[in-house]
Specification:
Layout: H1 2-25, H2 30-34, H3 47-66, H4 73-97, H5 101-121
Helix pairs in contact: 1-3, 1-5, 3-4, 4-5
């Protein structure tokens, strides 16, 4: 189960590194293709806002990657739970306020990883 947990944590971290790239560096190019319903004239004025969001996604990825470098399994799993919890809350909020697709892309993998970590702690 530990391998599955580590793979899920890595997947969530990689997703957030992609979000960092997308929001900080490709907002006005790829953003237009991804967010087709967003008015195209708003991409340039919202570029700083998107970059700020990307930076936060980078912090989430960094926290999840950090768990791989913590030798104490108790602390590693607690740090993972914290950052996965942040990801899950952000994904649920995004699903409620933007599009339900965000739940499946962002929140669900984090929630599955949280569940597996909690199950492994109790076994």
């Amino acid at each position: 189960m530990e391998l599955t947990i580590n793979v899920l944590i890595g997947l969530v971290a990689l997703l957030h590194l992609y979000f960092l790239y997308f929001e900080m560096f490709a907002w006005t190019t790829k953003g237009r293709k991804v967010f087709r319903n967003f008015p195209s004239e708003l991409f340039e004025p919202t570029k700083p806002m998107a970059a700020n969001q990307g930076l936060y996604n980078g912090f989430l990825a960094a926290g999840l990657i950090w768990t791989y470098f913590i030798d104490d399994t108790y602390w590693s799993s607690n740090i993972a739970l914290f950052f996965l919890g942040c990801v899950a809350v952000a994904g649920i909020y995004g699903a409620l306020t933007v599009t339900k697709k965000i739940f499946f892309i962002q929140a669900l993998p984090a929630l599955i990883a949280i569940l597996l970590i909690l199950l492994s702690k109790n076994s």
